[in-house]
Design goal:
2 domains; alpha/beta; Elongation Factor Tu (Ef-tu), domain 3; six-stranded antiparallel beta sheet; five-stranded parallel beta sheet; FAD/NAD(P)-binding domain
């Protein structure tokens, strides 16, 4: 007896792990290293493309709550992430190479997981299968999925550049976290005055963008959570100052005042030799990225280890197709997991893979699928995927707004978030014995 898992990204690796730890053999199909997408560079599994941040660490936040639920359920990815965390203020960020390497070793060393290298071009029908090929699903398999599902939506996803620490001009930068949270060295802040910012904004909105060949470029759908910075800038002169370049909570020690605008750089690795331009996902041509971002004084001579890129993303009309167990309504033996289901974010993708893997085992064993309470973030995300009422279904990340309202009204924002978190974990703890059955 075995279960197929297609794709060794975050969702696929988590699904394979959950299946194997319950004593079922797994055939994990992965096209790397034989074939890579334009956004991938490593041969390892679980390669982080957009950012190395796994969002907020506090349990009293939506993202932090999701991660804590995953820890308690027994997530492989959370276990690895906690071991290779790097300073990131109030966020959980990881050394991306250590993270993907750690997950890859765990998967390859598990005796019940067989790695099948090569591109999958057909949807297997030999056994229960979890499709977790992600937003970069190869064209051949994507066509089969579209044929099976009858519809699929496309949009673009963008990644931010990475620069070397030694090339950042610290004479024009300072280290600090917003409101002094998370330590002074969590972020390198690149301030700009009003004149510098307005010149940068003007150059950004007129800079030349890279061509896109893989879909209709006249009508792309760009997901708000990964909106290229040049598109954000087109919405108005001050849009970036209320978004990725907001100066609130920061004071430049050189002037004693809050800057007009600030770009934050977050460390990419434990050695702090690489830094990510936070919120600067982009589709500018590479020379244009160097020219325009170089107008930020601290990045005048920045050395780029990776330029920003923009790539295709694909997700399903999941409320029409999937149940809250992440399997198809019309083909219960076929599961989907990851961003292609309409969850948005690294840990959200892994979370869906975790639940798809658990439920794939239950289907094989003839048991009812396990649907977590909607009061938990894991359950609420699954419920959104299966039951979202919007006519125009869009990806959703962890947020308190998808949880049922609290019985009591709490005005204080922090206290209200803490109450949501406490309720969720209490609900989860009540069913952990059933979840943990192997």
């Amino acid at each position: 007896m075995y279960i197929n898992v297609l794709g060794a990204g975050l969702a696929g690796c988590e699904a394979a792990w959950q299946i194997a730890r319950r004593g079922i053999n797994v055939r994990l199909f992965e096209m790397k290293p034989e074939k890579k997408t334009p956004a991938h560079s490593s041969d390892n599994f679980c390669e982080l493309i957009c950012s190395n941040s796994l969002k907020a660490a506090r349990v009293e936040s939506a993202a932090g709550l999701l991660k804590e639920e995953m820890r308690r359920i027994g997530s492989l990815l959370m276990s690895v992430a906690d071991k290779c965390a790097v300073p990131a203020g109030g966020a959980l960020a990881v050394d991306r190479d250590a993270f993907s390497g750690g997950v890859t070793r765990a998967i390859r060393e598990h005796p019940l997981i067989e790695i099948v290298a090569g591109e999958v071009t057909e949807i297997p029908s030999d056994t229960v299968t979890v499709i977790a090929t992600g937003p970069l699903t190869s064209d051949a398999l994507a066509e089969k999925i579209i044929s099976l599902c009858g519809d699929s939506l496309h949009f673009f996803d963008a990644a931010a550049p990475i620069v070397t620490a030694e090339s950042i001009d610290m004479n024009h930068a300072f280290t600090a976290s917003r409101y002094d949270k998370g330590g002074d060295d969590a972020y390198i802040n690149c301030p700009m005055n009003k004149e510098e910012y307005e010149a940068f904004h003007s150059a950004l909105i007129s800079a030349e963008r890279a061509p896109r060949h893989d879909v209709d470029v006249m009508n792309p759908k760009v997901y708000e959570g990964c909106m290229p910075v040049e598109i954000l800038a087109q919405r108005g002169l001050d849009t970036l100052r209320f978004g990725p370049m907001k100066p609130v909570g920061l004071r430049d020690p050189k002037t004693g005042h809050r800057p007009w605008a600030v770009l934050q750089l977050r460390t990419e690795n434990s050695e702090k030799t690489l830094y990510n331009l936070v919120g600067f996902q982009t589709n500018l041509k590479f020379p244009e990225q160097k020219r325009v971002f170089g107008m930020i004084p601290a990045l005048k001579n920045a050395e780029y280890m990776r330029y920003g890129v923009m790539h295709r993303n694909t997700f399903l009309d999941s409320p029409r197709l999937l149940t809250a167990a992440y399997n198809m309504k019309e083909r219960p033996e076929l599961f989907f997991a990851g961003q292609m289901t309409g969850v948005e974010g690294y840990m959200e993708s892994a979370d869906s893979g975790m639940m798809a893997g658990i439920n794939a085992v239950r289907i094989v064993r003839g048991e009812k699928p396990l649907i977590l309470p909607v009061e938990t973030m894991t359950g609420a995300l699954a419920d959104y995927v299966a039951n979202a009422q919007s006519k125009d279904f869009q990806p959703m990340g962890a947020n308190l707004g998808i949880l049922p309202p609290l019985e009591e009204s709490i005005r204080d924002k922090k206290e209200r978030a803490a109450a949501y978190s406490a309720r969720a974990l209490k609900k989860l703890n009540g069913i952990l014995p059933d979840i943990g059955k192997v």
